[in-house]
Amino acid sequence: MTKLLPKAEVCNRGSVMNSIRLSGVTPRFLSDNNATSDIWRQEVAFRKGDNYLVAAHSGSGKSSLVAYICGERTDYSGDILLDDHRVETLKPRRWNRVRQQHISCIFQGLRLFADLSAWENIVLKNNLTNCKSNGEIMQMIETAGLSAKKDEKAGKLSFGQQQRIAIIRALCQPFDFLLADEPFSHLDDANISVMSRMMTSELHRQGAGMILCSLGASYPFAYRQHLKL
Amino acid sequence: MRNTIHKLLQQHISITQTAGYAFAAVTGMSIIFAAFSFSTDIRPLFAPETQLFNREIMVINKKVSPAALFNSSLTAFTDDEIEELRQQPFVRSLAYFTPGRFQVKAFTETSGQMPRMSTDLFFESVPDRLIGTLPEQWSWDENNSVISVMLPRDYLNLYNFGFSGSQGLPQLSESIVQQVSFKIYLTGNGKRETFTGKITGFTDHLNTILVPEAFMQWANDRFGESDHPSRISRLIIEADNPADPAIASFFAARENYLLNNNKGEQGKLSYILKMLIIIVITVGFLILLPAVGLMFLSIHLLVYKNREVLGNLILLGYGRSRLAMPYSIFALALNIVIGMFSLLLAYYARVLYAGKISTLGFDLSGFGITVVFAAVFVWAVTLLDILWIHRRINRIDIPARG
Questions:
Q1: CATH number of the domain bearing residue A193
Q2: Which of chain B's residues have a Cβ under 8 Å away from the Cβ of A98?
Q3: What is the least distance, in Å, from the CA of A95 to any CA of chain B?
Q4: Are the beta carbons of A113 and B401 separated by less than 8 Å?
Q5: Domain assignment present for A12
């Protein structure tokens, strides 16, 4: 597989994940709620290479969806399958591989380390796979307009700045799917434009798909499907 | 970059808890190491291998009660009693004295140095292997007619320091006594015969007049009175360790047995010393155990305080065993420092007691074995810590729910 694609473009890795499927998944806290949804209680398949917009109201389980797929939470009924593997059956070692090479997340809460500098936060992720060179990371920080902030502690940055760091961090790994949970909530249009271009370019380069959760805004991406949660 | 992970995970390490653990652990470990070092240093005092061969031998007989005046079989051992002794774990082998069943008379022929003497004697024999160093002529040849005799060294001392002075007789060295031959006159079974006798050696631990076993068999066949009862009244035990406390307790329970054990007192001393060392080591552990408990608690708290960071790292794709690494390295480094410091204290203690022990006239064994012991010990404690770290980190929910 790696022979067919130039190494620099996919970050060195062995296998590819082609689909994420949800089969009758319902969060426990929504189990007695019968509101219609395109995702909960449905058969849904996300394909590698396609972008999906998941629009949701607050409290409809948007962050839960991300948390379920990335193995953070298991308070649901139904099945989530990564290719043909039910996530409940994945061993910790396998989860490490999934998180290092197949699914990258931009969490709504960002999950940056406040005591580390912006640079260290990114490199901590990149270090797992050495996907990007230091020069490439610098380039991304510069594009995001954060060159002057790279050595400041993440905790001292504004939430908008932190959001951009979290996005760059998520791009510093090989992935088949990018899970983005309201990634632009604190960014102005100019920044949204810059960051969405950076994401699109990386999605193309990796041939990856994206599941973007948003409260309503659709942002400048080409979606295969709009889903209502 | 490794440093970033360490920086992140070693947040919340409590200096107070670490110092408390270090202080208690150094106290406990230095006591344990010092006691270990002391026990290896004094081991040569009690180790069977450095004792002379003959010291592993004990002679047992029964007390002579007033009743024995009329019934000499009271001091004989029955077959059951012998078997019981043979079954004891501390008995490596058991043998007995074979008495001669004939009359013995020894006399000297007049010569320049030796006074003319004549005396009634008795002979006994024991298996050769129990005699220790055998004299060269310790054999019996029917055609030779020279009987090799061994005397207790005490007899010669009695003569030299007691008898000879009071009687104005010359003192005799062992070598002079060994040069002198005398006549031995055996009577029994209707036969009488004269032999040449020669003292060929002295024993310290077998309190009898010994002749070679081969001679005893021959002589008992030839001169032995058939109606003379052959009773076993003295047993010889070869023990693996004469200082074994089991020996003392066995004979304490059998009041009519008399044990001639040179090592008895030393056995008690060794026992008391061993008990002391065990007590000291126990105290060391009593101090160390809460320290290790404190370490466990600190690890637990540390992982708990860092659970969010750990959970986030797991979500980024970091493996749990990789996350355990910084804590394991910290525990290892801390324990190595503690171990070395404790070893240093133990060495200092050893310097203090070494001077006193060396006046007893034996060399201390090396400190190397204590260093090895300490290394193994520190590694074992560290291994416990590492197992505990892994256990705590494996218990982390990713992330903490909510």
A1: 3.40.50.300
A2: 317
A3: 7
A4: no
A5: no
The boundaries of the domain holding residue A138 are 19-228
Quote the minimal CA–CA distance from A100 to chain B in Å. Answer: 5
Chain A, 139 to 178: residues with Cβ < 8 Å from chain B are: 173
Partner A contacted by B10 (CB < 8 A): no
CB neighbour list of residue A95: distance below 8 Å, 6 or more residues apart: A71
Q: Are the Cβ atoms of A96 and B7 closer than 8 angstroms?
A: no
Count of domains observed in chain A: 1
pLDDT per residue as tens, chain B (402 positions): 557 888 888 888 889 999 999 999 999 999 999 999 988 887 766 655 444 433 567 888 888 878 777 777 778 888 888 888 888 888 888 888 888 888 888 887 766 665 677 888 888 888 887 776 777 778 888 777 788 899 888 888 888 888 888 888 888 888 888 888 888 888 888 888 888 888 888 887 788 888 998 888 888 888 887 766 667 888 888 877 766 777 878 888 887 888 776 555 666 677 788 889 999 999 999 999 999 999 999 999 999 999 999 999 999 999 999 999 999 999 999 999 999 999 999 999 998 888 777 776 666 777 889 999 999 999 999 999 999 999 999 988 764 333
CB contact under 8 A, B4 and A120: yes
Is the distance from CB of A26 to CB of A77 less than 8 angstroms?
Answer: yes
Tell me whether residues B8 and A73 touch, CB distance under 8 A.
no
